[in-house]
C-alpha cells in the first residue's frame, strides 16, 4: 500500500469490521475504521485516505449519497461492500462513482484481492497537480495559490480540476456542468456562469484565467 495514506473501512457491522481488519492488518495494510458516515467524515477531515471500502446501508444515511457527494470533489477510489446485490443495486453503486462493488457474503481472500486492486488504482492518482503557482490536491479536494488555500467550494474545486487537467482546451459547458453537478443536462439559469466568475476572481494573480468561448464553453489559459 502507498505510504502516503491509509485504507478507510466504513461499515457498521462489528463482525464484518473485525474480519476485514484482521486480514488487512495481517497483510501489512494501514487502516482506519468508521462505523457511521459521521465518523467517516470526521476521520477524513483530519487526513484523506488512499481508498475507501464503503457499506451502503449505514445507521446515519446512505453510502451512495456519501459517495455522490465525495465524487464532486475527490477521485479517491471507493469499493462498495454491501448485501444489496441485485443488478440495479450494482449499477446504482457504480453510476454513483464507485470503482468496484462486492456483495455480502464474500470470501475474505476475494475481498483482499479486490482491495489490492483498489489500492493499485489509488497509486495512479497524483497527490498533487501543479499548474504554475497553483497546486491542486485531488484527494483532499483543495487548491492552493502560492501556498495559500483558495478556500474553494466543492463545485469550484471540481471545475478547477477539470480545467487544470486540460489547459488551453475548450471545455463544453455541458461537460463542465456534468462534472460539477453530476447531471447531464445543464439548467437554463446561469449557475455555471456564476461559479466560473467566482473561480476566475480567486485565480487572480496566478497568471491564469478562464475565458468564455461563445457557444462552446470555457478555456483555462495563460493571461
Architecture overview:
By secondary structure, the protein is α/β, with parallel strands linked by helices. It is built from 8 helices and 14 strands. It has helices at residues 14-26, 37-46, 63-70, 87-95, 108-124, 154-165, 173-181, 191-202, and strands at residues 7-10, 31-34, 51-54, 57-58, 61-62, 78-82, 100-103, 129-131, 134-137, 142-145, 148-149, 170-172, 208-213, 217-222. The strands form 4 sheets. Strands 2-1-3-6-7 form a 5-stranded parallel β-sheet, sandwiched between helices. The longest helix is centred in the middle third of the chain and has 17 residues, at 108-124. The chain starts with 6 loop residues before the first strand and ends with a strand. The relative contact order is 0.11.
Summary keywords:
223 residues; alpha/beta; five-stranded parallel β-sheet; four-stranded antiparallel β-sheet; 8 helices
Please outline the helices and strands.
Layout: E1 7-10, H1 14-26, E2 31-34, H2 37-46, E3 51-54, E4 57-58, E5 61-62, H3 63-70, E6 78-82, H4 87-95, E7 100-103, H5 108-124, E8 129-131, E9 134-137, E10 142-145, E11 148-149, H6 154-165, E12 170-172, H7 173-181, H8 191-202, E13 208-213, E14 217-222
Parallel strand pairs: 1-2, 1-3, 3-6, 6-7
Antiparallel strand pairs: 4-5, 8-9, 9-10, 10-11, 12-14, 13-14
Give a brief rundown of this model.
The chain is of the alpha/beta class.
Rg from C-alpha positions?
A: 19 Å
Low-confidence stretches: none
Largest sheet: 5 strands, parallel
Structural class: alpha/beta
Q: Between the first and last Cα atoms, what is the distance in angstroms?
A: 41 Å
**Helix-strand string:** EHEHEEEHEHEHEEEEHEHHEE
- In order across it, which strands form the biggest sheet? 2-1-3-6-7
Q: Given the structure, what is the number of helices?
A: 8
The proportion of strand residues reads 15-25%
Shape annotation: elongated
Rounded mean pLDDT score: 87
How many DSSP-defined strands? 14
The helix fraction, in percent, is 40-55%
Amino acid at each position: 500500500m502507498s505510504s502516503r495514506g491509509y485504507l478507510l473501512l466504513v461499515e457498521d457491522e462489528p463482525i464484518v469490521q473485525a474480519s476485514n481488519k484482521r486480514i488487512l492488518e495481517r497483510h501489512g495494510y494501514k487502516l482506519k475504521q468508521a462505523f457511521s458516515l459521521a465518523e467517516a467524515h470526521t476521520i477524513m477531515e483530519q487526513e484523506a485516505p488512499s481508498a475507501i471500502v464503503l457499506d451502503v446501508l449505514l445507521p446515519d444515511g446512505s453510502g451512495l449519497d456519501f459517495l455522490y457527494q465525495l465524487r464532486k470533489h475527490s477521485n479517491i477510489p471507493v469499493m462498495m461492500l454491501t448485501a444489496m446485490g441485485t443488478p440495479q443495486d450494482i449499477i446504482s453503486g457504480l453510476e454513483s462513482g464507485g470503482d468496484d462493488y462486492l456483495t455480502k457474503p464474500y470470501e475474505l481472500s476475494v475481498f483482499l484481492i479486490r482491495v489490492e486492486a483498489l489500492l493499485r488504482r489509488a497509486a495512479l492518482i497524483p497527490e498533487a497537480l501543479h499548474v504554475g503557482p497553483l497546486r491542486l490536491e485531488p484527494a483532499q479536494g483543495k487548491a492552493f495559490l502560492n501556498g495559500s488555500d483558495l478556500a474553494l467550494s466543492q463545485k469550484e474545486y471540481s471545475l478547477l480540476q477539470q480545467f487544470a487537467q486540460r489547459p488551453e482546451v475548450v471545455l463544453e459547458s455541458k461537460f463542465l456542468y456534468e462534472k460539477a453537478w453530476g447531471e447531464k443536462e445543464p439548467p437554463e439559469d446561469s449557475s455555471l456562469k456564476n461559479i466560473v466568475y467566482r473561480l476566475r476572481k480567486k485565480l487572480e494573480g496566478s497568471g491564469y484565467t478562464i475565458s468564455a468561448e461563445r457557444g462552446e464553453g470555457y478555456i483555462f489559459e495563460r493571461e
